[in-house]
């Protein structure tokens, strides 16, 4: 994670959230600091579970931001 500007993780299953935290921990040492990567979670559109997992996780972990690809939600390719 050294030298990264942002981290974006797609969430389909709970293990994706564990992966996100592991990767963020490598770059942040557990705390958000000036100049550290911006943390994004994006809902996986494959399953409804990915959407609910992401929203519930974001409510409890405020250092993460929601990332949307509105073109995919609208069906535009």
SSE blueprint:
Elements: E1 6-11, H1 14-28, E2 38-43, H2 48-60, E3 64-67, H3 70-73
Parallel strand pairs: 1-2, 2-3
Commentary on this structure:
This protein is α/β, with parallel strands linked by helices and 77 residues long. It has one domain (6-73). The chain is built from three helices and three strands, in the order βαβαβα. The chain has helices spanning 14-28, 48-60, 70-73, and strands at residues 6-11, 38-43, 64-67. It has a three-stranded parallel β-sheet with strand order 1-2-3, with helices on one face. α1 links the parallel β1 (6-11) and β2. The longest helix has 15 residues, at 14-28. It starts with 5 loop residues before the first strand and ends with a helix. 16% of the residues are buried. The model has no long low-confidence stretch (mean pLDDT 82).
């Amino acid at each position: 994670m050294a030298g990264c500007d942002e981290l974006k993780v797609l969430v389909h299953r709970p293990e994706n959230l564990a992966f996100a935290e592991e990767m963020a921990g490598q770059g942040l040492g557990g705390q958000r600091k000036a100049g550290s990567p911006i943390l994004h979670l994006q809902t996986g559109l494959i399953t409804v579970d990915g959407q609910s997992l992401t929203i519930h996780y974001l409510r409890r972990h405020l250092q993460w931001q929601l990332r949307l690809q509105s073109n995919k939600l609208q069906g535009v390719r």
